[in-house]
Amino acid sequence: MSPGGWFRVETYSTSTLRKWLRDWKSSKPHRLDADRTKGNIAGLEAELTRRKESGEDAISRRVTARQEGGDDGYQYVVRVDGRMVANGLTKGEAEHEKKRQRDQLKSR
Questions:
Q1: What is the pTM of this model?
Q2: Contact predicate 24/36, CB 8 Å
Q3: Which DSSP string do the residues of the chain spell out, in sequence order?
Q4: What does the domain layout of the chain look like in residue ranges?
Q5: Segment 94-107 mean pLDDT
Q6: Strand order, beta sheet including 83-89
Q7: How far apart are CA 61 and CA 13, in angstroms?
Q8: Under 8 Å between Cβ of 73 and 49
C-alpha cells in the first residue's frame, strides 16, 4: 500500500512510514515516475527525521492500547511501560486515553 499524498503522516506509526519509504524507493513505478513521487518521499523522510529528533518515537512505544480478555466492546486496556493505567474502555475511549497518556509523558 502506498498513499498518494492524501493522508496525514502524523496518524501513522513510524514503522509504517519506514515500510512505505522502503517500498517506494524500491518500486518500479517510483523509478519510472520519480518526479511525481519525489514530494511524497521527501515528506515521509522529513516526518521520520522530525520524530527522531523530537523523541516522539520513544514516547509512542511506551504507551499501548489493545483489546484484552475477550471480544466485548468494553475490553480495551491502556498500558504505560507495561503497567495498566486504564481498563474496561471502549475502542474510542482507549484511543483518547492513549493520546492523553502520551501527552502527559511528553510534558514530563
A1: 0.53
A2: no
A3: ----S-S-GGGS-HHHHHHHHHHHHH-HHHHHTHHHHHHHHHHHHHHHHHHHHHTHHHHHHHEEEEE-SSSSTT-EEEEETTEEEEEEE-HHHHHHHHHHHHHHHHH-
A4: 9-54, 65-107
A5: 89
A6: 63-67, 76-80, 83-89
A7: 10
A8: no
